[in-house]
TrEMBL record:
Residues 319-334 have a biased composition (Basic and acidic residues). A 1,2-diacyl-sn-glycero-3-phospho-(1'-sn-glycerol) binds at residue 141. It is found in: Cell membrane. PANTHER family: PHOSPHATIDYLGLYCEROL--PROLIPOPROTEIN DIACYLGLYCERYL TRANSFERASE, PROLIPOPROTEIN DIACYLGLYCERYL TRANSFERASE. It comes from Streptacidiphilus jeojiensis. This is Phosphatidylglycerol--prolipoprotein diacylglyceryl transferase.
Length: 334
């Protein structure tokens, strides 16, 4: 008999008339909203245009959802296409099944398209996005809780997750299991704190903060994956997601090492800087501002009608009436 456990939700779907409201979808939407909020704040702090974040997100999110579903279906095709299964269920995204690897890969393609349209370097946006992305993952994992899926081995731990669930295949799960969704959610939140601290402490740039996100997340996903008992294809004794985590971890750490001495770009945000307020009096060329002034003729030192100064060698006439052209008379001294 279990002394303590985490109870499962009594339901994961609510209906408003004929419209089903699914907790899984709500968790994903809430995660996207949190990522958008945090990324927008970080982008503005860097001096970027806040409209960039919304426009790029409109490209990245649909690509990411499609990529996440494709990864899940491609890596577990027997769940949908073997004899006796219903292939149409491959489209039932509300039943769960989004692979983060596919979501990040195809989402990056959507973000690249959005960045090109906005004139934003992808590496700069990826660094701004990294903490928000893993925050979205932390929130989205609670969708697995409402779907009562992706749990681990049976356990007697006081934080075990009680499951009473019949899946679409008619398989019944009943008991207390390792709450792997909770482990991953807490790990992701710790990664958010680490990324924010590292960026503040060392000012990561050139995609290095995104690489740190990949390294941190995959390090945790590796041990959490080993606790899960849901269906997965195995290769050489490891689950497929373990191999994916290992490869991504090595690539991310390798990039961090190779780029450790890379100087910060002079303009990290490309053409996405905030426009200055008010009309500009200067002509801007590239990043330099050149001020133009109207040519004004030199002003003479004298008044307009003043007589010109006499020639320096000219001598005034003598007081006795002698002309200035007459030679000077010398009086002998006595």
């Amino acid at each position: 008999m279990e002394l303590a456990y985490i109870p499962s939700p009594s339901q994961g779907v609510w209906h408003i008339g004929p419209l089903p409201i699914r907790a899984y979808a709500l968790c994903i939407i809430l995660g996207i909203a949190a990522a958008l909020w945090l990324t927008r704040r970080r982008w503005i702090k860097l001096g970027g245009n806040p409209d960039d974040v919304v426009d790029i997100t409109l490209w990245a999110v649909p690509f990411g959802i499609v990529g996440g579903r494709l990864y899940h279906v491609i890596t577990d095709p027997e769940l949908y296409f073997k004899s006796g299964e219903q292939p149409i269920r491959a489209l039932y995204i509300w039943d769960g099944g989004l692979g983060i690897w596919g979501a990040v890969a195809l989402g990056a393609l959507g973000a690249w398209i959005g960045c090109r349209r906005r004139g934003v370097p992808l590496a700069a946006f990826a660094d701004a996005l990294a903490p928000g992305l893993i925050l979205a993952q932390a929130i989205g994992r609670w969708g697995n809780y409402f779907n009562q899926e992706l749990y681990g081995d049976p356990t007697t731990l006081p934080w075990g997750l009680k499951i009473t669930y019949t899946d679409a295949n008619g398989d019944i799960a009943h008991g207390v299991f390792q709450p792997t969704f909770l482990y991953e959610s807490l790990w992701d939140l710790a990664c958010v704190a680490l990324l924010l601290y590292a960026d503040r402490r060392w000012n990561f740039h050139s995609g290095r903060l995104f690489a740190l996100y990949v390294a941190c997340y995959t390090a945790g996903r590796g041990w959490i994956e080993s606790l899960r008992t849901d269906h997965a294809n195995h290769f050489f004794g490891l689950r497929l997601n373990d191999w994916t985590s290992l490869i991504c971890f090595v690539v991310a750490v390798g990039y961090l090492i190779l780029s450790r001495n890379r100087p910060e770009p002079e303009n990290r945000l490309g053409r996405s800087r905030l426009a200055p307020e008010g009309p500009a009096d200067d002509a801007t060329i590239g990043d330099s501002s050149v001020a133009f002034t109207k040519d004004v003729p030199d002003t003479p030192d004298t008044e307009p009608n003043a007589e010109p100064d006499p020639e320096p060698d000219a001598e005034p006439a003598e007081a006795d009436g002698r002309s200035a052209d007459q030679p000077e008379k010398h009086t002998p001294r006595v």
